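Reviewers of the previous submission asked for a worked example of the structure-prediction workflow described in the proposal, so we include one complete record here. The input consisted solely of the amino acid sequence. No template or homolog information was supplied to the procedure at any stage.
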Amino acid sequence: MKKSSLQNKPQDDSDLEETDEPENVLVSHSEAANALEIVLRYIEQSENTTSTDIMYMRRWHNIASTPRITSLRQTNLTNIFTPKYR
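From that input alone, the workflow returned the following structure tokens.
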């Protein structure tokens, strides 16, 4: 029997490697909240999703959104000049 040329060809795994971003790059709260919002919309429209799945995704979305919202909140002048160790 003759072996096909595909069996002898070495596999190219370069497509499987993730070279887009280094591993030590941190994801911001805004990026995480945006990604989780897309995932939440996706699972809400899926037929195989349970209510528990949606509940957990909403919780993760809220966790990622909370620091983003607090960082956008305007600081009062009294908070700047008042010592925090009272």
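The two ends are 86 Å apart (CA to CA). We consider this example representative of the routine output the project will generate in years two and three.
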